[in-house]
Design brief:
One of its GO terms (molecular function) is hydrolase activity. Pfam families: Abhydro_lipase. This is Partial AB-hydrolase lipase domain-containing protein. By secondary structure, the chain is of the alpha/beta class. It has one domain: Alpha/Beta hydrolase fold, catalytic domain (Rossmann fold, 3-Layer(aba) Sandwich), CATH 3.40.50. It has helices spanning 63-69, 103-122, 133-143, 169-185, and strands at residues 10-15, 20-27, 40-44, 73-78, 87-88, 126-131, 151-157. Strands 1, 2, 3, 4, 5, 6 and 7 form a 7-stranded mixed β-sheet that branches. It starts with 9 loop residues before the first strand and ends in a 5-residue tail after the last helix.
Protein backbone atom coordinates (compact mmCIF):
# COMPACT_ATOMS: atom_id res chain seq x y z
CA UNK A 1 0.00 0.00 0.00
CA UNK A 2 2.87 2.37 0.72
CA UNK A 3 4.65 2.05 -2.61
CA UNK A 4 1.44 2.51 -4.62
CA UNK A 5 1.32 6.03 -3.15
CA UNK A 6 4.84 6.87 -4.36
CA UNK A 7 6.66 6.31 -1.07
CA UNK A 8 9.49 3.91 -0.41
CA UNK A 9 8.80 1.02 1.94
CA UNK A 10 11.13 -1.38 3.70
CA UNK A 11 9.96 -4.72 5.11
CA UNK A 12 11.48 -5.79 8.42
CA UNK A 13 10.98 -8.95 10.49
CA UNK A 14 11.25 -9.17 14.27
CA UNK A 15 11.23 -12.43 16.22
CA UNK A 16 9.78 -12.29 19.73
CA UNK A 17 11.26 -14.24 22.63
CA UNK A 18 8.32 -16.68 22.38
CA UNK A 19 8.93 -17.33 18.67
CA UNK A 20 6.40 -15.16 16.83
CA UNK A 21 7.74 -13.44 13.72
CA UNK A 22 6.35 -9.93 13.41
CA UNK A 23 6.34 -7.75 10.33
CA UNK A 24 7.23 -4.06 10.40
CA UNK A 25 6.95 -1.67 7.49
CA UNK A 26 9.27 1.32 7.44
CA UNK A 27 8.72 4.52 5.50
CA UNK A 28 12.20 6.06 5.73
CA UNK A 29 11.48 9.21 3.72
CA UNK A 30 8.65 11.39 2.53
CA UNK A 31 7.27 11.75 -0.97
CA UNK A 32 10.05 14.22 -1.83
CA UNK A 33 12.61 11.44 -1.36
CA UNK A 34 14.45 13.40 1.33
CA UNK A 35 15.68 11.11 4.13
CA UNK A 36 14.08 11.44 7.55
CA UNK A 37 15.74 13.95 9.85
CA UNK A 38 13.36 13.56 12.80
CA UNK A 39 13.28 10.67 15.28
CA UNK A 40 11.50 7.38 14.58
CA UNK A 41 7.77 7.05 15.16
CA UNK A 42 6.22 3.64 15.81
CA UNK A 43 2.55 3.32 14.84
CA UNK A 44 0.65 0.48 16.54
CA UNK A 45 -2.76 -0.51 15.19
CA UNK A 46 -5.92 -1.28 17.13
CA UNK A 47 -8.00 -4.32 17.90
CA UNK A 48 -8.99 -6.50 14.91
CA UNK A 49 -6.83 -4.37 12.60
CA UNK A 50 -3.33 -4.43 11.15
CA UNK A 51 -0.80 -1.79 10.13
CA UNK A 52 -2.80 -0.87 7.04
CA UNK A 53 -5.08 1.13 9.32
CA UNK A 54 -2.48 3.93 9.20
CA UNK A 55 -2.52 3.98 5.37
CA UNK A 56 -6.16 3.74 4.31
CA UNK A 57 -6.97 7.43 3.87
CA UNK A 58 -5.55 9.70 1.16
CA UNK A 59 -1.90 10.53 1.78
CA UNK A 60 -2.71 13.97 3.17
CA UNK A 61 -5.06 12.36 5.73
CA UNK A 62 -3.05 9.25 6.70
CA UNK A 63 -0.84 9.71 9.75
CA UNK A 64 1.97 7.50 8.41
CA UNK A 65 2.32 9.55 5.21
CA UNK A 66 1.90 12.89 6.99
CA UNK A 67 4.69 12.00 9.43
CA UNK A 68 6.98 10.75 6.65
CA UNK A 69 6.41 13.97 4.70
CA UNK A 70 7.26 15.93 7.86
CA UNK A 71 10.64 14.19 8.07
CA UNK A 72 9.92 11.40 10.56
CA UNK A 73 11.25 7.87 10.22
CA UNK A 74 7.93 5.97 10.26
CA UNK A 75 7.63 2.36 11.45
CA UNK A 76 4.30 0.53 11.20
CA UNK A 77 3.81 -2.44 13.54
CA UNK A 78 1.70 -5.56 12.99
CA UNK A 79 0.95 -7.70 16.04
CA UNK A 80 1.01 -11.50 16.01
CA UNK A 81 -1.88 -13.15 14.24
CA UNK A 82 -2.52 -10.34 11.76
CA UNK A 83 -2.18 -11.15 8.07
CA UNK A 84 1.30 -9.59 8.01
CA UNK A 85 2.57 -11.33 11.15
CA UNK A 86 1.56 -14.97 10.97
CA UNK A 87 5.04 -16.46 11.17
CA UNK A 88 6.47 -18.46 14.05
CA UNK A 89 9.72 -20.30 14.55
CA UNK A 90 7.99 -23.64 15.16
CA UNK A 91 4.20 -23.24 14.93
CA UNK A 92 1.75 -22.71 12.08
CA UNK A 93 -1.43 -20.61 12.26
CA UNK A 94 -3.26 -23.91 11.71
CA UNK A 95 -1.91 -25.19 15.06
CA UNK A 96 -4.23 -24.45 18.00
CA UNK A 97 -1.15 -23.68 20.13
CA UNK A 98 -0.31 -20.79 17.80
CA UNK A 99 -3.41 -18.97 19.04
CA UNK A 100 -2.82 -19.55 22.76
CA UNK A 101 -1.91 -16.01 23.67
CA UNK A 102 -3.57 -12.92 25.09
CA UNK A 103 -2.90 -9.22 25.36
CA UNK A 104 -0.39 -10.05 28.07
CA UNK A 105 1.90 -11.63 25.46
CA UNK A 106 1.62 -8.51 23.31
CA UNK A 107 2.83 -6.53 26.33
CA UNK A 108 5.51 -9.02 27.38
CA UNK A 109 6.86 -10.02 23.96
CA UNK A 110 5.55 -8.16 20.88
CA UNK A 111 5.86 -4.56 22.02
CA UNK A 112 9.31 -4.96 23.65
CA UNK A 113 10.69 -6.81 20.61
CA UNK A 114 9.34 -4.16 18.26
CA UNK A 115 10.63 -1.26 20.38
CA UNK A 116 14.07 -2.85 20.70
CA UNK A 117 14.28 -3.54 16.98
CA UNK A 118 13.37 0.04 15.96
CA UNK A 119 15.66 1.47 18.65
CA UNK A 120 18.56 -0.74 17.55
CA UNK A 121 18.03 0.06 13.86
CA UNK A 122 17.86 3.83 14.39
CA UNK A 123 19.97 4.36 17.51
CA UNK A 124 17.30 6.74 18.80
CA UNK A 125 14.48 6.83 21.31
CA UNK A 126 11.15 6.64 19.56
CA UNK A 127 7.82 8.36 19.54
CA UNK A 128 4.92 5.93 19.87
CA UNK A 129 1.36 6.27 18.59
CA UNK A 130 -1.06 3.60 19.72
CA UNK A 131 -4.70 3.21 18.79
CA UNK A 132 -7.18 1.07 20.73
CA UNK A 133 -5.27 -2.17 21.39
CA UNK A 134 -2.04 -0.26 20.71
CA UNK A 135 -2.96 2.08 23.56
CA UNK A 136 -3.87 -0.75 25.92
CA UNK A 137 -0.57 -2.59 25.47
CA UNK A 138 1.41 0.64 25.81
CA UNK A 139 -0.36 1.54 29.08
CA UNK A 140 0.39 -1.94 30.41
CA UNK A 141 4.04 -1.88 29.35
CA UNK A 142 4.60 1.63 30.69
CA UNK A 143 2.91 0.77 34.00
CA UNK A 144 5.43 -2.08 34.36
CA UNK A 145 8.30 0.33 33.57
CA UNK A 146 9.03 -1.51 30.32
CA UNK A 147 10.28 0.41 27.30
CA UNK A 148 10.79 3.72 29.12
CA UNK A 149 14.49 3.81 28.28
CA UNK A 150 13.62 3.67 24.55
CA UNK A 151 10.55 5.95 24.61
CA UNK A 152 10.66 9.63 23.69
CA UNK A 153 6.90 10.31 23.83
CA UNK A 154 3.57 8.54 23.45
CA UNK A 155 0.25 9.52 21.91
CA UNK A 156 -2.36 7.03 23.08
CA UNK A 157 -5.66 7.12 21.20
CA UNK A 158 -9.00 5.46 22.01
CA UNK A 159 -7.97 3.12 24.82
CA UNK A 160 -9.96 -0.07 25.32
CA UNK A 161 -10.47 -2.07 28.46
CA UNK A 162 -13.74 -3.96 28.23
CA UNK A 163 -15.79 -5.06 25.25
CA UNK A 164 -18.62 -6.55 27.31
CA UNK A 165 -20.25 -3.16 27.92
CA UNK A 166 -21.30 -2.66 24.30
CA UNK A 167 -25.10 -2.25 24.25
CA UNK A 168 -25.83 -1.61 20.58
CA UNK A 169 -27.31 -4.71 18.91
CA UNK A 170 -25.85 -3.55 15.60
CA UNK A 171 -22.34 -3.19 17.06
CA UNK A 172 -22.58 -6.57 18.81
CA UNK A 173 -23.78 -8.30 15.64
CA UNK A 174 -21.15 -6.59 13.50
CA UNK A 175 -18.35 -7.54 15.87
CA UNK A 176 -19.51 -11.17 16.09
CA UNK A 177 -19.81 -11.44 12.31
CA UNK A 178 -16.44 -9.77 11.82
CA UNK A 179 -14.75 -12.10 14.30
CA UNK A 180 -16.32 -15.12 12.55
CA UNK A 181 -15.04 -13.87 9.18
CA UNK A 182 -11.57 -13.26 10.57
CA UNK A 183 -11.48 -16.72 12.13
CA UNK A 184 -12.40 -18.25 8.78
CA UNK A 185 -9.82 -16.19 6.89
CA UNK A 186 -6.96 -17.04 9.21
CA UNK A 187 -8.01 -20.62 9.98
CA UNK A 188 -8.58 -19.93 13.68
CA UNK A 189 -9.92 -23.11 15.29
CA UNK A 190 -13.36 -22.75 16.87
Amino acid sequence: MVETQGYGCEEHKVTTDDGYILSLQRIPKGISGKAATNPPVLLQHGLLMDGNTWLLNPTDESLAFILADDGYDVWIANTRGTKYSQGHTSLSPQDPEYWEWSWDELVDFDLPATFKYVHDQTGQKLHYVGHSLGTLIAFAAISENKLLDMLRSAALLSPIAYLGQIKSPLAISASQNFIAEVRELIFLPF
